[in-house]
Amino acid sequence: MVLEIHSEILFGLCIFSHTKGLSSETIRDVYDFYSGAVGACHAYAEARSLKHLCRSVVRRMLCESGFWIPDGIKLTGVPRGLESFLNLED
Q1: Helix 5-20 × helix 24-38 angle, to 10°
Q2: What's the mean pLDDT in 32-44?
């Protein structure tokens, strides 16, 4: 999946600048700040692994069921290895 993050940010700032009257210098300052804050941006994104997606779903379902992380994971009684995995320890 190709994401052109930098160009999307610049496009959004340009649209915003036309409605709010921002100077090109202000746009560049905001863009430079954002780029520095989030680190290097890549022109592509890799899909998450199935392992990561499964962990995310289990954690989300626990939270939606009212079980706080990490206490909710302990209450499930899953083996220690799986508990560590769900607690982002591995």
Answers
A1: 140
A2: 66
